[in-house]
Design brief:
The chain contains four helices and four strands; from the N terminus they run αβαββααβ. The protein folds into two domains: 32 residues; 94 residues, Alpha-Beta Plaits (2-Layer Sandwich), CATH 3.30.70.100. The chain starts with a helix and ends with a strand. The longest helix is centred in the N-terminal third of the chain and has 30 residues. It is an alpha+beta fold.
Length: 132
């Protein structure tokens, strides 16, 4: 009988330690801040910008940004919300961290691509959102 009580007490102690460890692990993963940053760019174009030029801009942007280290989830496309029709094209991408975002901003090919199309763009809206 004493042996059985001892085994049950040890089992209860092990279960308690496992539960406490799981709770501790959950609090550690939930409270850890993410380093990820999502950049969203909205573009409007001058009336003289042709559909072919806009398509070329989207193609070149994808070709330039997609292979960059630390960039994920690249999404480029036409606006579908009629209430926000002023913005004709949207670009969204995720960066692993601040260093990846900085590398993107200073990338020479990206700068050249930007300069190639800047005369077609009448306005832009850029947001950088840190994942919390």
């Amino acid at each position: 009988m004493m042996n059985r009580k001892r085994v049950l007490a040890m089992l209860a102690a092990v279960i308690l330690m496992v539960v406490a460890g799981a709770v501790w692990y959950q609090t550690q993963t939930v409270s850890a801040k993410s380093t990820k940053i999502r950049r969203t760019i909205l573009l409007s174009f001058k009336p003289e910008a042709t559909e072919a030029q806009i398509q070329e801009l989207m193609k070149d942007t994808r070709k330039n940004i997609a292979p960059m280290k630390g960039v994920h989830g690249l999404f480029i496309g036409k606006q579908t919300n009629p209430k926000a029709a002023v913005w004709q094209v949207g670009i969204s991408m995720d960066f692993d961290d601040e260093a990846s975002l900085k590398a993107y901003r200073t990338n020479e090919e990206h700068r050249q691509n930007h300069n190639k199309y800047i005369d077609l763009i009448s306005g832009s809206q850029i947001t950088d959102i840190r994942d919390e």
